[in-house]
Amino acid sequence: MKVSLKQQAYQTIRTKILNCEYAPNSYLNEEQLCKEINVSRTPVRDALSRLEQENLIKILPKKGVVVAPLNINEINMIYETRVLLEPYILATYGNRIDDDHFNKLKNIISESDSLIKLVTTSSSADLTRIHELDDAFHKLIVCSSENPYFIQCYKNMSAQNTRLRILSGSLNKDRLEKTQIEHIEIANEIIKRNYKKAADTLEAHLMASKDAAFNVILSGGFEL
């Protein structure tokens, strides 16, 4: 199925924002976007309108288009929500994680482990895939609740979570390895069906991720 020019522009710009090719707080030039994507202004303007609704950009009168900043307040709100949501789901609905989910967790961890080992030995390591697997790990836990409101809440934070993961992982490779260790600890408690301990371990993991994100923002020159 052929992708429309509007959808092409939207997907291209959104992807570059999420993978931080367009860095937080950077300005986007509409004419340059048209050249990059090889489309006219109309699809680009439509895409920018959609991205503004998703809070991924800000359209400032007489100034232009700026990629939404990642600041301390934003990170605090995201992790405050995640700490309330994810450990609760695991403690309350962990018993819904069946053998099929266990196998998916193991596959996520196995693939992540192989990719993270490449990070220290190769400049071509697939960081994007590592972050996708990180998201898949947490999404599996959230979806185990079978509660559409919980799932939608997690989805609402997905774009900002992706940017945080990419910034933290790109600027702090050690955090990738620590995240993997923490995911293994969480998975081990789930497999032992010790859901309370798994939830506590998950909460500690989220707090460590929050601290890492803070450090990236404070050291990276992004808007506070």
UniProtKB/TrEMBL annotation:
Domain of life, source organism: Bacteria
All copies of the HTH gntR-type domain together span 3-70
| Keyword Transcription regulation included in the entry's annotation | yes
InterPro entries for the chain? GntR_C, TF_FadR/GntR_C, Tscrpt_reg_HTH_GntR, WH-like_DNA-bd_sf, WH_DNA-bd_sf
Which keywords does the record carry?
Answer: DNA-binding, Transcription, Transcription regulation
Give the Gene Ontology MF terms in alphabetical order: DNA binding; DNA-binding transcription factor activity
Q: What is this protein called?
A: DNA-binding transcriptional regulator, GntR family
